[in-house]
Specification:
301 residues; alpha+beta; 5-stranded mixed beta sheet
C-alpha cells in the first residue's frame, strides 16, 4: 500500500497527540493537484483551536451501536471484531462482490488529511485522518452510468454491539451521498488517526469522512456500499426527517429545530469553552459549494 501525505490545515490546528506529533512542523503545501488550497486559509482565519489529546478524539464521540453516552463507545467498542473484514460493493457497479479489507488497503494510496469535524450537536474537533479517496474505491468497483447515489451500511452485530439492543435507531445504521459528493476529492474513507490504525470507537476498520457535512453522515465500520439510481434512506432522516435532512451540510444559517448552528464548542475546553463561529460548509465552501448550485439550502438541508 502506497502512502501520500496531503494536508488541508496545519498541525497547529490539529487536536494533537503530543507524544506522536512531537510538535513537528508540517508544510501547508498540497500534493497531487488536489485543489484544496483555500481550505487552510479559511480555517486559519478563525482563532486557533484549543489543543486536545488523542484521548479526547477517541473517548468523546458518538457511536450509538455501543451506547448513547460520549464515553460509551470507548468503553464498549473493544468487543467489535475487525479482522477479518470485508465490504460488499454491489448495485450499479461493473465488479460487484465482497472485497477483503486487506485487498482494499493493498490497492489504495493512503494519505493524511487534516480535516475539521463538526458534529450536528454543535461541538467540533480537528482530526488528522489517514485514508484514501472514496472515488478510488468506487472506480475500482466500476461505477455504471446509471448510478446517481451511493448508499452505505454499518455492521450490525448484537453480540458485539450492546447499543443495538435498544431501538434508538432502526438498525443497521445506513447513510448515503449523491454520487458527485462521493466522488469529490475531499471525501475519504478513513482507516487511521494520527498515523495509527483507527480505533474501534472511531469506526474501525474503515469509515466515511465527508468534512463539509455534519459528523453523523460519516458512517462508521462500513460493511456494504451500494451504487443506486435512487436516493437511499439514511438513519437519522428516517428517525426524524424534520431535524435531519439527507444532505446535512454544515450551515450556520440553518438552525437545528432545537438549537442554533451559528457557533460551535471546540472540544477540550470544558463545558464553558469559548464558542467560535461556524463556517459555511465547515470551511470548505470554496471547494464544494458548486455541488449545490441552484439548490435552496434551507429546503435541501
Amino acid at each position: 500500500m502506497a502512502h501520500r501525505w496531503i494536508n488541508t490545515l496545519t498541525h497547529d490546528d490539529v487536536t494533537p497527540l503530543a507524544a506522536f506529533m512531537n510538535r513537528r512542523s508540517v508544510m501547508a503545501g498540497l500534493a497531487a493537484g488536489v485543489g484544496l488550497a483555500g481550505i487552510g486559509g479559511a480555517a486559519q482565519a478563525q482563532d486557533a483551536l484549543e489543543p486536545n489529546s488523542y484521548e479526547d478524539i477517541t473517548q468523546y464521540n458518538n457511536y450509538y451501536e455501543f451506547g448513547t453516552g460520549k464515553n460509551d463507545p470507548a468503553a464498549n467498542a473493544h468487543m467489535l471484531t475487525t479482522e477479518p473484514w470485508s465490504v460488499k460493493i454491489d448495485g450499479l457497479v461493473d465488479k460487484p462482490g465482497d472485497y477483503a479489507m486487506a485487498d482494499i488497503m493493498d490497492a489504495m494510496t493512503i494519505e493524511e488529511r487534516i480535516y475539521r469535524f463538526r458534529c450536528v450537536e454543535a461541538w467540533s474537533m480537528v482530526i488528522p485522518w489517514n485514508g484514501f479517496e472514496l472515488a478510488d474505491l468506487l472506480t475500482m468497483a466500476g461505477v455504471q452510468t446509471d448510478a446517481k447515489y451511493v448508499a452505505f451500511e454499518t455492521a450490525l452485530r448484537p453480540d458485539e454491539m450492546p447499543g443495538v439492543r435498544f431501538p434508538v435507531l432502526d438498525w443497521p445504521y445506513v447513510e448515503g451521498l449523491r454520487l458527485d459528493e462521493a466522488m469529490h476529492p475531499l471525501t475519504i474513507m478513513a482507516t487511521g488517526i494520527y498515523g495509527k490504525p483507527i480505533p474501534n470507537q472511531n469506526g474501525a476498520p474503515m469509515r466515511l469522512v465527508v468534512p463539509w457535512k455534519y459528523g453523523f453522515k460519516s458512517i462508521k465500520s462500513i460493511v456494504r456500499i451500494t451504487l443506486t439510481d435512487k436516493e437511499p434512506p439514511t438513519s437519522w432522516n428516517k428517525a426524524n426527517a424534520r431535524e435531519y435532512g439527507f444532505y446535512s451540510n454544515v450551515n450556520p444559517e440553518v438552525d437545528h429545530p432545537r438549537w442554533s448552528q451559528a457557533s460551535e464548542r471546540p472540544i477540550g475546553g470544558g463545558l464553558f469553552a469559548k464558542r467560535k463561529p461556524t463556517l459555511m460548509m465547515n470551511g470548505y465552501a470554496d471547494e464544494v459549494a458548486g455541488l449545490y448550485d441552484g439548490m435552496d439550502l434551507k429546503v435541501h438541508f
